[in-house]
Write a structure and sequence with these properties.
single chain; about 425 residues; alpha+beta; 4-stranded antiparallel sheet; 3-stranded antiparallel sheet; 17 helices; about 10% strand
């Protein structure tokens, strides 16, 4: 008669290098403790298949993950199934065969696709949400099961984005991740959102920063020293008033003469946008050292992907701007050590361009068209009935803005160069 297995006896069992051991449990007939020649240990149940009447076996789990008490309970469950005419081994094989499909279904990349298709695609920010998944979320979590994503994973992702100098983008990603988590809960994919309780990285304030005339001049001169590809890229941000990624991901096939068509899938509001390229913008594009690649990116270092490393490039630009500013002030007889440039972001170039166009007399609706805004003058009923393209007005606006910038950044002496108060704003 078989001995009743004990926890101490199971732990003390040693492998036989010549054969696999199956030690029966006298306390529960049909349960075996299996010891492989390699030392691996597991639990199994032997029974007769209800379908064929032939001997069969099903593995319950590995030891010590499955202890003696848990193994006996699992064995009783298997034996009750046999008594009810169910073959537990066949059920386990069927579950194992279906497991890859279930796992793929629950991967973050698969759930994200469903989220974008069924939820985010209905919003005007769909294109931007998709970019966040492609650039920030999926590289970190794509192959994870969504059930395995934790609050700590969210915090680590946000910290990584913030540490590269993009705290506001971290906040945007948090908003997207929170929507994904809530949507997954509503679809019964997860029981609780992994973003619950996670706070924004940085409190946001309504930004009003625009670059002064002096700062625009220093910016332009600094971009000339910054080199490829970021020098021309940053100048084009100012000249076109478009968003960073829309300019940075520009492709050759989008350019037709003096027209640049930003396709809907790359535009933040999901609407294709035609941008007039002034002569200064065309000259800037011609200055770019082209690197061949199938994708046709204009601003690239590899030919296959758009340029990356904006934060470091912006830091170099800031240093160059400050050095140029101090040189100007010293040449005008001022104290260069008193010069400081308040913090600004690349997005402030877009705001500066919009403000500059208003300053030279461009009407607000035209400025909003240049910026590809769908709210403001073109929101609600006004947007439905006002179908005028403003193409000619936008051309004149961007040409006038480019002339203003070039006049501003020329080497003509400016009367206000020595104004420390303005320079140090």
């Amino acid at each position: 008669m078989s001995k009743v297995l004990t926890a101490k006896g199971v732990e003390a069992a040693r492998p036989d290098p010549t054969k696999r051991l199956e030690i029966p449990d006298g306390g529960l007939p049909g349960l075996y403790f299996v010891v492989q020649t390699s030392g691996g240990k597991s639990w199994a149940v032997r029974y007769r298949s209800p379908a064929t009447g032939k001997p069969a076996k099903v593995t319950l789990g590995k030891y010590p993950l499955l202890g003696l008490v848990e193994a006996r309970e699992a064995a009783r469950t298997a034996m009750r199934a046999v008594a009810e005419g169910i073959d537990p081994g066949a059920v386990k094989k069927a579950e194992k065969a279906a497991a890859p499909e279930r796992i793929d279904r629950d991967r973050v990349t698969t759930v994200a696709d469903e989220f974008l298709k069924r939820h985010a695609s209905k919003n005007r920010t769909a294109a931007e949400t998709k970019r966040q998944f492609e650039r920030e979320i999926l590289p970190a979590w794509g192959q994870k099961l969504i059930q395995d994503v934790t609050r700590r994973d969210v915090i680590d992702l946000l910290d990584k984005i913030a540490d590269r100098g993009s705290p506001i983008m971290a906040n945007r990603v948090l908003a997207t991740v929170r929507k994904l988590g809530n949507w997954a809960v509503s679809r019964d994919i997860i029981q609780a959102s992994f973003a619950a309780g996670v706070k924004p990285v940085e409190a946001e304030r309504s930004r009003e920063r625009i670059l002064s005339d002096n700062e625009l001049r220093w910016f332009w001169k600094a971009t000339e020293k910054l080199g490829q590809p970021f020098g021309p890229l940053f100048r084009l941000l100012l000249l076109t008033a478009q968003r960073r990624d829309e300019v940075g991901d520009m492709r050759a096939r989008e350019i037709d003469g003096q027209k640049w068509v930003i396709p809907a899938e790359r535009a933040k509001n999901g609407r294709a946008h035609v941008v007039h390229l002034s002569e200064a913008a065309i000259a800037t594009l011609y200055s770019v050292k082209r690197i061949a690649g199938r994708a046709g990116y204009i601003f690239t270092t590899t030919g296959e992907r758009p340029a990356s490393g904006y934060s470091k490039a912006k830091e170099r630009l800031d240093r160059l701007m400050l050095a140029i500013a101090r040189e100007e002030v010293a040449a005008a007889g001022g104290d260069p050590e008193r010069v400081a440039i308040a913090h600004w972001t690349l997005h402030d170039l877009r705001r500066s361009a919009a403000s500059g166009m208003a300053r030279i007399g461009v009407n607000l609706p035209v400025i909003e068209k240049v910026l590809n805004h769908v709210s403001g003058s073109f929101g609600g009923v006004a947007g439905v009935y006002n179908r005028h393209s403003f193409s000619e007005e936008m051309e004149r606006a961007l040409d006038a803005w480019a002339r203003f910038v070039l006049d501003l950044v020329s080497d003509k002496p400016a009367a206000n160069v020595v104004s420390i108060r303005e320079i140090a704003q």
